[in-house]
Amino acid sequence: MKNIPSLLLATAIMLASSHAATIAEYNFTGGSLISSDLGTNWTTSDIDITSNAAAGGNGSFDTTSLADALTYNWLISDGNTITLTNFASFTIQADPGYNMTLTQISFRAYTPASPGANPTVYFRSNADGFANNLVAQDLPKSQSGFLPYLATISDTLGASDVREFRLYFDSGSAGNANDIYIDDIQITGTATAIPEPSAVLLGGIGTLALLRRRR
Description:
The protein is 14% helix and 41% strand. The protein is mainly beta. It has a single domain (17-214), classed as Jelly Rolls (Sandwich). The longest helix is centred in the last third of the chain and has 18 residues, at 197-214.
């Protein structure tokens, strides 16, 4: 009977279902900021690009420069810093009765040739108050087209928790005046059903009954 606790734990794990999935996806087709995820155990928001710096600040977002990508238009005054009030954002929320684990951020980016240092794209989240970078990706210029980028993350959301992601840019050096194009943003992870206590109890009773029959 020493293995009963382990068997009960295994039963609880089997009763909780999980599956790897694309949690959030943004393709910007036709300039759309709508999330194209198909999840049923979580909710994602559209991308919000209203938190732009004021006129004469450090840049702005739009989807008009290239209709199938999110464009960051940086200005002459930009240079080697993140403007914390200037970002694009979206949220992910686990449905009641589910926990989520977020494991990966991927995207494609294109930066035309221009003077100065390479720009950098950053992803941060409210998990730590937007204090640290989940992604800090240098974007080489003179590209002939979009390049793929991928970063591994580890983030857990409890039932009904809301995770906000923010996308920031650093143009690399003052004097730059160009666009950065971002496309196909994806967040990957798993959604796990939280087992009801009654289900765990019934599973445990069934396990105990099976053990007694084996004796």
